[in-house]
Amino acid sequence: MIYAINYDLKRPGQNYAGLHEAIKKLGVWWHYLGSTWLVDTNLKASGIWDRLAPHVDENDRVLVIGVTHDHQGWLPKEAWDWIDSRPTASAA
């Protein structure tokens, strides 16, 4: 299943490399927008959050949400190709 991980990190200048590495370890990922990642993983949203929570502060904001085939936007072709090629792109 593909999940979108979106965040608003509130501490300017803080090193969030640990968060980015945690996201990359979740599964096959795509990252084209600054604070949005798409991850194809077998984990549920709660399992994703459990792995990301140690890397954010209490004042940060994070949203983990399933992605369905009902999507639209303005992205480059390779982004749509990545999304459309995932066999598990339907939210439960």
Q: What does this protein look like?
A:
By secondary structure, this protein is an alpha+beta fold. It has a single domain (2-85), classed as Alpha-Beta Plaits, CATH 3.30.70.240. It contains three helices and four strands, in the order E-H-E-E-H-E-H. The protein has helices at 17-24, 45-52, 77-85, and strands spanning 2-8, 28-33, 36-40, 61-66. Strands 2-3-1-4 form a four-stranded antiparallel sheet, sandwiched between helices. Strand 2 and strand 3 (36-40) form a beta hairpin. The protein is globular, with a radius of gyration of 13 Å. The relative contact order is 0.29. The mean pLDDT is 87.
Put simply, the count of helices is 3
- Quick one: overall form? globular
CATH class: Alpha Beta
Largest sheet: 4 strands, antiparallel
How many separate domains make up the residues? Answer: 1
The name of the CATH topology is Alpha-Beta Plaits
SSE pattern: EHEEHEH
Strand content: 25-35%
Second rung of CATH, namely the architecture: 2-Layer Sandwich
What does the secondary structure layout of this molecule look like, with pairings?
Elements: E1 2-8, H1 17-24, E2 28-33, E3 36-40, H2 45-52, E4 61-66, H3 77-85
Antiparallel strand pairs: 1-3, 1-4, 2-3
